[in-house]
Amino acid sequence: MNAGRFLGSSIVGWVLPRGRIARALLFKTLTIAIVIGLVTAGGYSAFDYGYQKEMARTGALEALNMTREAAKRATYDLDPVLALTIVDGLAAAGRFKTVTLTDDFAMNLAEWRGSISDSLFERSARFTVPPMEEIVVLLFDDDTGQSLGMLAGTIDEVPIFREWFRHAASSFLLVPLAVLVAAALLAGLFHRSVTHPLTMLAETIKRDWIEDVEPGTLKLPPEHRGNELGVLIETINSASSALRTANAKLREVVEQLHNSESRFRSYFDNAPEGIFVADEAGRYTDVNPAGCALVGHDRENLLNMTVLDVSDPPERAWHWELFSGLQETGRLSAEIALRRKDGSRVYVWLSAVRLADGGVIGFCQDTTERRAYEATLKAAKKTAEDASLAKSHFLANMSHELRTPLNSVIGFSGAMSEQIWGPLPERYLEYARLISQSGEHLLGIIGDLLDMSRIEAGKTQLSLEEVDVGIILTEVLSIVSAQAESNDVRIALAPDFRPCRIDADPIRIRQIFINLLSNAVKFSPHGSVTISTDCDEKSHRIVIADTGIGMNAADIATALQPFGQVESRAETRRFQGTGLGLPLANQLVELHGGRLDIRSKRGEGTTVTVVLPKRAT
Questions:
Q1: What is the DSSP string of 338-394?
Q2: What is the 3-state secondary structure (H, E, C) of 443-509?
Q3: What whole-number distance in Å separates Cα of residue 261 and Cα of residue 5?
Q4: What is the DSSP secondary-structure string of 383-433?
């Protein structure tokens, strides 16, 4: 009784459900139930049809085997009466459509063919069901094994169809009904346990939460305390509390975002650089006051313009290429020319990036004055370079013009000091030696001037070959040995000196070491000069260390300048020189791809390190 009432209330609850979801769920449930029932009935009917055919085949074979012995006697004795009795008996079983008994000569001893009914059912059966096969039982003599004949019968398909149709009708009626009843029971259970409580919960939410003066807390009905609906309500209340907390944090975030946007707008509007924002089509969407002042347009006009409208006409095609490239690469830095409203040209350095929405933002810094200043600097640099080149040409020409008469003076004074043309008084011999020494000194100065001018003019060419640094240093030591002896300077190679072969111009390398060793000897009276080397796979280091007067950092910078003389101390003024030896050596080292390092301290001496590459590049 209770089950019937439950089923009735469930069906009524589903027949007249409340809510679109409940009605849709009802329709889907019934549709699925009917489909499942029909598919199940169809599957069962297909299986039952095969089963009925197999049972009919098995029964027919058993019937024929049961009459095998009698059929043997009838065929052995050629007894037509017995044969007819056997055939009639098989026909009476109702399984066969035709029955035939033949002897071993294929002569019919007896034959039966059933009558064909003209009823609609049998016509439908014979039209629907394919004809059954003929079952044949061969008859043999048990003693001799000789063939006696054959007993054959064709199964009648009408009884099979009748039995199958009866079962199929029951299946298609009962199975869907059973599935539908089960679906109704499940639907009723689902309605009572899910749909109805959810409907009540929705009404409660509408009444106690949405329409409440203080929304956020659902009232839990006493009858649902502890069940699933009660748990759901408590969960919703917890979620509501978390949502209120999240809303409070969201309001804080929104307020912070608003403040951040206000600060950004303040930065944007007060930035000293022009800031332009454009969409992916190049139309301006925002611009700051500095940008407006840069191009001479007000903001309202600029927001109706594109990036090409403010471009300098000769550069518009290039500007569009830059804009298209910015869309692909995402970044751009270039100096471009813009056309102001008054028609004047302004140069800006543009740094732009692509934004996430496809637009771009560009920062423009006015470079017009800087360009003018750079042009002035370039002109001044060109003038200075021309002046330097003219000076180098002048020095080269003057050096050449001075060397010719100087060679004559040196030659004649040398001949006089050697008394080639006869003896001279001692006083005139001293004059001739002074003239020769002064001429040699002046010729050395002119040579240094000529070399310096060639280097500055870029006309010095190196003749590179593999040279032995040890051999060249030995030759140079023999050249400066007289100067070292006169200054009482001890000069020698270090005990760990290692010779090395490098690619270099031997004449220029010899000149470098003559200048450096001459300076070391000159500024180290009564001292010593030591030469050491260090060779690795890539470079060769030659270190010349003296115990002379030394220099401070400012003196080193002065000494490396052409014609630089360290005149700040009284003790250095007695040393003669033009100030070209060290700068010339430095420039020749750099021509070889090396470097010259100087470390010195006043009163403690100077260490000069020459680093030369082993192989020319």
A1: EE-TTS-EEEEEEEEEE-TTS-EEEEEEE-HHHHHHHHHHHHHHHHHHHHHHHHHHH
A2: HHHHHHHHHHHHHHHCCCCCCCEEEEHHHHHHHHHHHHHHHHHHCCCEEEECCCCCCCEEEECHHHH
A3: 67
A4: HHHHHHHHHHHHHHHHHHHHHHHHHHHHHHHHHHHTTTTS---HHHHHHHH
Helix (H) or strand (E) holding 559: helix 553-559
Statement: residue 214 has pLDDT above 50: no
Q: Maximum Cα–Cα distance for the chain, whole Å?
A: 187
Let me know the angle formed at the C-alpha of 319 by 317 and 320, rounded to the nearest 5 degrees: 65
The string of pLDDT tens digits covering residues 451-473 is 666 666 666 677 888 888 888 88
Q: Please state at what angle helix 506-522 crosses helix 469-486, rounded to 10 degrees.
A: 30
pTM: 0.38
Instruction: Give the closest residue to 339 by CA, choosing from 371, 368, 360.
Output: 368
pLDDT in tens, 303-321: 999 999 988 888 889 989 9
Q: Which residues contact 514 (CB under 8 A, 6 or more apart)?
A: 476, 479, 480
Cα 17 from chain centroid (whole Å):
57
Mean pLDDT across 227-248:
75
Euclidean distance between CA atoms 42 and 63, whole angstroms: 32
**pLDDT score at 119:** 61
Q: Which residue has the tokens 């009708």?
A: 169
Helices and strands per DSSP (H, E), number in the chain: 17, 16
Q: What angle do CA 519, 525, 526 make, to 5 degrees?
A: 140
- Other Cβ atoms less than 10 A from the Cβ of 414: the count is 16
- Residue 573 has a pLDDT of 47
**How far apart are alpha carbons 303 and 282 in whole angstroms?**
11
Q: Which residue has better confidence, 246 or 295?
A: 295
